[in-house]
C-alpha cells in the first residue's frame, strides 16, 4: 500500500473507494465553509462604513504588514504543494521537512495577525469599537482561527507520517489537509482584496 | 476521486506556475494601492479583477481543479456553492444598500 498505489486510479479496491468518498465529503465541507466566509464578507461590506467614533481603517491597517501576511500564506501554499509531491513520490523525510516549513510559515502568519489585533485593541479599535470593527474581527478572526486549527492539524499529521509512515490512511488525510490549506489561502485573497486594500486606499 | 485529481495535475511545475502567477496577481493591486496613482473606482475594479483571476489560478494550480479530470460531483458542488454565495451575498448587499438609500431619501 505505497503512496504510488494510492495515487493510481487504475488500481482501485473497496478501500480506495472509501477514501474517495471521504475526499468528496471533505470537499462538501469546504464548500459550506466557503459559504460561511462569503456571508462574513457580505456582513463586512455592509458594516464597513459604520465606523462610529472608532479610528478609521486607514489609520489602523498597514500595507506592508498585510503584504507580509500575504507572502507568508502564499509561500506556505507552495511549500505544502512540495510536501504533497514528496508524498506522491513516497519520500517520507521530504514530506516531514516541507510540512515543518509550512508550519513555520503558517505560525508566522498567525503571529503577525495576533500582533495586528493586539495593536488595534491597544489603539482603542477593539471588536467593540464600532460595527465596522465587529465585522472586521469576526471575518479576519474566523480565518485566523481556521489557520490555527490547520497548524494543529499539520502537527498531528506530521506525527502520523513520522510514526506510521506514508500508509494509505495517512496519505489520504494529508491530501485533505492540503485541500484545507490551499482553501484558506483563497479566502485570504478575498480578505486582502475586500478588507485591507480598500481600507488603505 | 482524489486519486484522479492527484494523478491529474500534481507536479512541481504546476505549483511553481501557480505561485508565480499568484505573486504577480498579488503584487499588481498592492503596488497600485501603495502608489495611489489610480482613481478610486478604477482601483476597485483592478483589485476585484486581480482577486477573481487569482482565485481561478489557485483553483487550477494549487487545488488542481480541471473540468476534464476533476470528478463531476466535485465541480457540481463547487458550482452549487457559487450559486448560493451569489444569491446570499448579492441579495444581502442589494437589500442592505437599497435600505440605506431609502433611509437617506
Q: How would you describe the overall organization of this protein?
A:
The complex is a heterodimer of chains A (201) and B (105). With 201 residues, chain A is mostly helical. Chain A has helices at residues 3-6, 14-47, 57-60, 63-88, 92-122, 131-164, 168-200. Helix content of chain A is 83%, strand content 0%. In chain A, helix 2 packs parallel to helix 7 (168-200). The longest helix of chain A is centred in the first third of the chain and has 34 residues, at 14-47. Residues 1-6 of chain A have low confidence and may be disordered. With 105 residues, chain B is mainly alpha-helical. Chain B has helices at residues 2-9, 12-35, 40-62, 72-104. The longest helix of chain B is centred in the C-terminal third of the chain and has 33 residues, at 72-104. Chain B is flat, with a radius of gyration of 18 Å. The interface between A and B is large, with 52 and 50 residues.
- What summary fits the major beta sheet of chain B? none
Q: Give helix % range of chain A.
A: over 70%
Radius of gyration of chain A: 19 Å
Average pLDDT reading of chain A: 92
Stretches with pLDDT under 50, minimum 5 residues of chain A: 1-6
Global geometry of chain A: elongated
Query: Helices and strands of chain B: which structural class?
Result: mainly alpha
* SSE run of chain B: HHHH
Provide a compact summary of the structure.
The complex is a heterodimer of chains A (201) and B (105). With 201 residues, chain A is an all-alpha fold.
List the helices and strands and how they pair.
The complex is a heterodimer of chains A (201) and B (105).
Chain A: H1 3-6, H2 14-47, H3 57-60, H4 63-88, H5 92-122, H6 131-164, H7 168-200
Helix pairs in contact in A: 2-6, 2-7, 4-5, 4-7, 5-6, 6-7
Chain B: H1 2-9, H2 12-35, H3 40-62, H4 72-104
Helix pairs in contact in B: 2-3
